[in-house]
Design goal:
Number of strands: 11
Number of helices: 5
Structural class: alpha+beta
Distance between the termini: 46 Å
Largest sheet: 8 strands, mixed
Radius of gyration: 19 Å
Order of helices and strands: EEEEEHEEHHEEEEHH
Shape: globular
Number of domains: 2
Length: about 200
């Protein structure tokens, strides 16, 4: 039985994402009930995929501007692993199988953003990005690539202007340590690669 119970849910905003105001109560073990209100960001599930080349083992990363960072007075693009939303179409094609839909989205986003063709993905885990405020579950992948089929750069109609960057695992980790890579999902994937390769 859930200790946290939804009493009412009100839509506040519908745009690229949805924002709801939920009225809930928490039931403590002593029987006491405390009412609370929470803003719930209803974000679609997403993917992140760290690409590495089969020939030289360099990582393929992206660099792009992120609007929320401007509110932190960070006026530079963010270096991160390729990422994007799992679309309703992905779920429909894969008969609502969330992992298969995530794999489909990962391959599409990698091709759109970096131009590299993903033939096989390695699924790591599905984690909640920020469960205190958001419904988003993020599916983590790595993939070895050996064929570049276009220049990448993202989809202009979606406001994307992505620079593809390539670097070694050592350089990427140095960039974490010196504050040049600050994206949490990317750092998590880099840590996985380090533990797997044990090369640093």
């Amino acid at each position: 039985m859930s200790k946290l119970v939804i009493e009412n849910n009100q839509s506040i905003w519908k745009g690229h994402l949805k924002l709801d105001l939920a009225t809930l109560h928490y039931e403590y073990d002593n029987g006491q009930k405390v009412g609370i209100k929470r803003e719930i960001l209803k974000a679609p599930d997403s993917i992140v995929i760290l690409l590495y080349r089969s020939d030289n083992h360099n990582l393929i990363l992206t660099k792009q501007w992120r609007a929320p960072l401007l509110f932190q007075e960070i006026n530079e693009p963010l270096i991160e692993a390729c990422a994007g939303n799992i679309d309703k179409k992905d779920l429909d094609i894969e008969n609502q199988d969330h992992l298969k839909a995530a794999i489909r989205a990962a391959k599409r986003e990698a091709e759109e953003e970096t131009g590299w063709l993903v033939k096989k993905t390695d699924f790591l885990y599905a984690l909640f990005s920020s469960p205190g405020i958001s419904t988003e579950r993020l599916y983590y992948f790595t993939a070895e690539v050996d064929e570049k089929i276009n220049e990448g750069g993202g989809v202009i109609e979606e406001g994307e202007d992505i620079e593809v960057v390539e670097m070694s695992l050592q350089t990427a980790w140095n960039n974490v340590l010196n504050g040049k890579i600050t994206d949490a999902k990317t750092v998590l994937l880099l840590q996985h690669m380090i533990s797997k390769n044990k090369s640093l």
